[in-house]
Amino acid sequence: MWRGNIIVQVVDTKLVSLLAEAKRPMDIKVLLASQNDCVLPIVEENLLGAGMYGLVAELAGKKGRNEKVLEIWTKFVLRTNQSA
Questions:
Q1: Burial 36-64 (b: 16+ CB within 10 A, else e)
Q2: Rounded mean pLDDT, 47-76
Q3: Is residue 60 predicted with pLDDT exceeding 90?
Q4: How far is residue 34 from each of residues 12, 51, 55, 67, measured CA to CA in Å?
Q5: Cα 9 to chain center, whole Å?
Q6: Which residues contact residue 25 at a Cβ distance below 8 angstroms, ignoring those fewer than 6 apart?
Q7: In terms of CB atoms within 10 Å, which of 16, 45, 74, 82 comes out highest?
Q8: Are 83 and 51 in contact (CB under 8 A)?
């Protein structure tokens, strides 16, 4: 059983990372809408790099990481203000 959870974690995490690199946010939304076992610290970098702040915040919120949600939106606002 334990090994199965690790395999699901690796597959879900890698799939989200690959979809982020391919700029496919709708496919990521479908994955996140179902039960998943993504590792937030690993996918966060890829999602933020692809500009998918909302998806990172959604994933963090689903994992009960409210402080992370605030951190992500703060990064988004700061980045938006620097671009303007």
A1: bebbbeebbebbbebebbebbbbbbeeee
A2: 94
A3: yes
A4: 11, 22, 14, 23
A5: 13
A6: 19, 50, 52, 55
A7: 16
A8: no
> Which helix (H) or strand (E) covers residue 64, if one does?
none
Question: What single-letter amino acid sits at 16?
Answer: V
φ/ψ of residue 71, rounded to 5? -60, -40
Question: In the predicted model, is pLDDT for residue 82 greater than 90?
Answer: no
d(CA 1, CA 20): 29
Work out the widest C-alpha separation in the chain, in whole angstroms: 50
